[in-house]
User: Fold this.
Amino acid sequence: MFQISLFGEKFGKITGIGELMNDIGDAMRKPDEAILMGGGNPAKIPEMQSVFCSLLSEISDTDTFANIIGSYDSPQGNETFLQETADYFRRMFDWNITHRNIAVTNGSQNAFFYLLNIFSGTFSNGAKKKILFPMVPEYIGYADQTLDDDALYSYLPKIEYTGKHSFKYHVDFDALKIDESIGAICVTRPTNPTGNVITDEEMDRLLELAKEHDIPLIVDNAYGQPFPGILFRRTKTLFDKHIIHSFSLSKLGLPSLRTGIIVADEEIIAMISNMNAVVNLASGTFGQALTTRFIAEDKITELSRTVITPFYKKRSQETLAMINRWFPDTIPYYIHENEGAFFLWMWFPKLPVNCYELYRRLKSRNVYVIPGCYFFPGCKDFSEMKNECIRITFSQEPNVLEKGIRILAEEVAKIYGGDL
Assistant:
């Protein structure tokens, strides 16, 4: 084998996000057997599929299509898309922005590789800085994004028990400390993997801390407002020079188009654009071309509110009912309050094996979940909860979910030493 650089060693090894994507690939090779309850693939909602087919037919004119697939756009993004998206956010939120506040990336994963490395690592004055996650669990894809190994730092949450088998995480502001070693604060809203929606009050306090320390608050809205709007409670969405917003077309039902949208101060957007030129030359045009009119006419908001949000809320309620049906009270389990996204975060207190062993046992029965230990990036505090949780998705069809949850309940019962 050739000698490999530290960069190659770091980004070429298997990671949590890599294992997740490999599981999706394995499951796709045996669709009749696999029960995929771990990945982040959105559901194929018939109403949305119909809309996308219609949009595709509109841009399939020979000349239009030839321009879309045959020409590079600016590294910042397609000019028309940027203009229409800026107009859209001004209408939606009354944000004081222009097209110069927006950049397009090849998916939000690409965007966060840029952003997390811009604000962490070694700075020109020799300082070393980290990205702060004020509350974990957090998105699995952040953990291995930074060039420096020790560039992430996080805090465990406060736990509020909300029912016999339910709870909610909160930011522990009493424990939270920010000093000169922190380069940025980062949150997802709603949070992947837990479905937690950080409250408006918590967001206000985080923004004040960002302003106080003159660092950015990065907000990942992959599942949030205004699209795809998979939120089951009302929230406000702020813009400020200290806020960097990330949006995505993926969870609308367009994951393969890899279209991420960054809204930020013009200086940050210029940096993103320059990085795009180096890494990608330009961002993919197809997602922008497909959705420009969709955004300009506010159809993206209308369908998010009337189709996507109700779909996932109903699927969430159905899945919770399945869990309560298959899990007897003799099995200790808690589920995080599902306030958004399309995941359920299950916690099995004092689980006799670690969550990876549970994952392995389920995978041997063709049920794919994600071990909870991958969702604690930069967490230095020991917590048994890291090894007692799993993430499951409810984007699959109900009959598939029912079968998977039954098998999950059987395996958990065996581990605790009981039977269903």
Remarks:
- The radius of gyration is 21 Å.
- The longest helix spans residues 299-326.
- The mean pLDDT is 92.
- The chain is about 40% helix and 15% strand.
